Amino acid sequence: MAAARMGISIIGCLAALMGLVWIGQGTGIFPYPASSFMINQSPWILRGAILLVAGLVIVWAGRRFVR
């Protein structure tokens, strides 16, 4: 079960990190790549925040319920 907990935690961390990147691109703080359609687009701020929260919930649930 330790492998399952580790896998779920990794997936949750990657989702949270991707959410942070989406927030950064949506706000224009992280303009990479320069030709990205996500830069300075406010819908990506909301989508990134939702993905960030979902990733944190996955990490929390994996640590709490997988024994």
Describe this structure in words.
By secondary structure, the chain is mainly alpha-helical. It has a domain at 11-26 and 41-67. The relative contact order is 0.25. The protein is built from two helices and no strands. The model has no long low-confidence stretch (mean pLDDT 92). The protein has helices at 2-27, 43-65. Helix 1 (2-27) runs antiparallel to helix 2 (43-65). The radius of gyration is 14 Å and the shape is elongated. Helix content is 73%, strand content 0%. The longest helix has 26 residues, at 2-27.
Termini separation comes to 6 Å
Spatial extent as radius of gyration: 14 Å
The chain-level mean pLDDT equals 92
What is the general shape? elongated
The H/E string reads HH
Strand content range: under 5%
The count of helical stretches stands at 2
Which secondary-structure class do the elements indicate? mainly alpha
Describe the largest sheet: none
Sequence stretches where pLDDT stays below 50 over 5 or more residues: none
Query: Level of helix content?
Result: over 70%
Strand count: 0
